[in-house]
Amino acid sequence: MKRIAIVEDELFMREELSGILQKADYEVEEISEFGDAAKQLLKLSPDLVLLDLNLPVSSGFQICREIKQKSSIPVLVLTSRDQLQDELHALNLGADEYLIKPCRKERLLARVSNVLKRYEGRQNLLEGPECLLDRQTYTLYIHNSSVVLPRNQGKILEMFLLHGEEAVSKEELCMAIWGTTEFIDENALQVNLTRLKKTLAGLRMRRQIVLVRGLGYRFTEEEPHEA
């Protein structure tokens, strides 16, 4: 059963949408706290996000941007904002569909179905700048080519792509690779980071793994301060 997350601050509308989707045999998750909605959605990892734009604390635009920077979760914007500039802005941020409410339930369900069909088989793909990473096989797709990364390199890259421009701590990287931070020689982490750096450089990826003192590492286009 496909799982759809609804991000809507109006209770009546949220309940109505939930009922429509449940009757169409979708599992529904309702988001009602909007300050950290993007983090909630990334943790839930639903098959589709139904997103309003006029939200308290954090706008739908910002939520869409954060989701699309860190995942390939499809986003269908459902909003009362009917200006072309709003639609274009949402689509430029990565939204997959833009619907103006109120709309007939048949139209909504048709758009939901179409977006889900477009994403079939892509649940394991993690989108990053200029690349895609298959999180099951650690196949990296870049510049019209692909390469299967060794498991440790794949797990490190996965962490960087999930964090976007945020720094990833050494502890988080160790947990991703070995499932623990105990008894891990830091040299072992450095060896894996160095190997991934060489792999990415060989693939002509513009982004680099950069040391951030006191925080860990960041995956960015910034020039590294140290070799």
Molecular structure report:
This protein is α/β, with parallel strands linked by helices and 227 residues long. It folds into two domains: 122 residues, Response regulator (Rossmann fold, 3-Layer(aba) Sandwich), CATH 3.40.50.2300; 92 residues, Arc Repressor Mutant, subunit A, CATH 1.10.10. The chain has a five-stranded parallel beta sheet, with helices on both faces. The protein has a four-stranded antiparallel beta sheet with strand order 6-7-8-9. The mean pLDDT is 89.
Based on DSSP secondary structure assignment, what is the total number of beta strands?
11
- Mean model confidence by pLDDT: 89
Q: Give the strand order of the largest sheet, numbering strands 1, 2, ... along the chain.
A: 2-1-3-4-5
Per the principal axes of the C-alpha atoms, what is the gross shape? elongated
Please identify the oligomeric state. single chain
Q: How many distinct helices?
A: 8
Order of helices and strands: EHEHEHEHEHEEEEHHHEE
In CATH, the architecture of the largest domain is: 3-Layer(aba) Sandwich
CATH superfamily of the largest domain: Response regulator
Beta strand %: 15-25%
- State the domain count: 2
Summarize the entry for a quick read.
With 227 residues, this protein is an alpha/beta fold. It folds into 2 domains: 1-122, Rossmann fold; 128-219, Arc Repressor Mutant, subunit A (Orthogonal Bundle). Helix content is 41%, strand content 22%.
